[in-house]
Here is the input.
Amino acid sequence: MNSIKKHDLATLGACAVLFAIVQTLLFVDFIGPFWELNIILILINVILSVSLNLINGYTGQFSIGHAGFLAVGAYTGAIITVKLGLPFELALVVGTLSSALLGFLIGLPTLRLNGDYLAIATLGLGEIIRICILNIEYVGGASGLMGIPRFTTFAWAFWITIFVIFVIKNFKNSAPGRCCLAIRENEIAAETMGIDTTKYKVMAFTIGAGFAGTAGVLFAHYFYIAHPASFTFMRSFDILTMVVLGGLGSMTGAITGAVLLTAISAALAEYPEWRMVIYSLTLIILMINRPQGLFGSKELSLKMFGLGGSHNGRATESK
Amino acid sequence: MLKVDQIDVFYGAIHAVKGLSIEVAKGEIVTLVGSNGAGKSTTLRTISGLMKPKSGTIVFEDNNIAGMAAHKIVASGLCQVPEGRHVFANMTVLENLEMGAYLRSDKDGIAKDMEDVFKKFPRLLERKEQVSGTLSGGEQQMLAMGRALMSKPKLLLLDEPSMGLAPLLVKEIFHIVQEINEAGTTVLLVEQNANMALSIADKAYVLETGKIVLSGTAQELASSEAVKKAYLGG
Here is the structure.
């Protein structure tokens, strides 16, 4: 246990150093506005892919409606700051909670479905949310909710991302997290072992939806606007692609997937006519050569390179 | 201990189990035999809560568990080893067994039962750290049984433990079922291999198209002409 905490502290230290470096580079304008925007976008996408990985990767429930929760977070956050004039911090909390609540309410009935059926149900859900927003005049309808102040800074985005990663990582290693893994491995067996499968599926779905909401608040408060067109099912697929590319069930995979795809997409911004071609080709080549994603379900760690710690750390611990 | 009374189970419009009643007394091995599609597995899945009966009652130790959620039924001391083994393929043997003790918190008891399981299935001990998806069929069956035992069930439901296994292994598995029973666990066994099942059971029911057509002690059924002809190959 002690070694785990030490390890976490070391990681946190590394994050702080990384943060200091990027923040300094931003401060001295070494990183221009274009890449600053993309760094924020990368961080938002990391939150999205890591939270979707909790649902799709760890719990094995194929959800493709993540953009819907992103939208709920974005709009709720914007209502708090723009319409009600309340602080950004509150927007973050309320945006997260309302998304989580929606995830909970939707999860209860839909998570009884399996595989393709759940995918279709969540896809539909994402669209329903978008269409609803499109028709609510209060939040601007089809023209979107404009005039959102830019409260999202690199610091906010960075530390929230780190927070989300830590929460989900710890959830995975907790008892409920183990239950989620068991459900992914074999739902029938999990049920016959006495695991309340619905409860843990809904739990994972709720947490994942909540963090997608957080990402939504950050998103809306960086780009000045919340617009229904940003939350189409293509957005859901983008997130899903990041997770699958990195490797379903791998946290480091989800992070790498998000960083890689967002960066590729940004780097190709100068060649708009080639952008989608190269983007798609990258995906096709990768999926042919590594169908399990970059990392499979493994985590990137020192152990991977044969450094530090016995391979069966957890198993030997429990003896 | 277990009394199933007049249950009806449907798959959509298909009436798979029709007014079925069985009884299992404490300490017994009871077997349900019958051919493919007779409703054996459906019955078992209904008892363990993976399926819900449309009507009828299932009383386990004075509680009606018909229609209760599976995880609650497990907590009351009834554990099923599902057909086709269903191990957690990407977890190690040890982790699988630990999952079996999911509902328990008595560390000493768990450690002791773990030892017992390894004593019953020495092969699992050899492969403790192996990822269970890479085990052979027989080993996976042993693991599924060991995992169920880790929940310390009062009543163990076994669904086709012999499925897809070599004859020698089948013998070994049935021998272990007997051992488990002698150690005090009541067993309800569903089998297509009627010969083997009848040889270790106390009581047996023969199922045909969702109905009990014959019942009696295992010896009676094993010597009954009708059963011999239909299930025991002459």
Q: What stands out?
A: Residues 32-317 of chain A form a domain with the ABC transporter involved in vitamin B12 uptake, BtuC fold (CATH 1.10.3470).
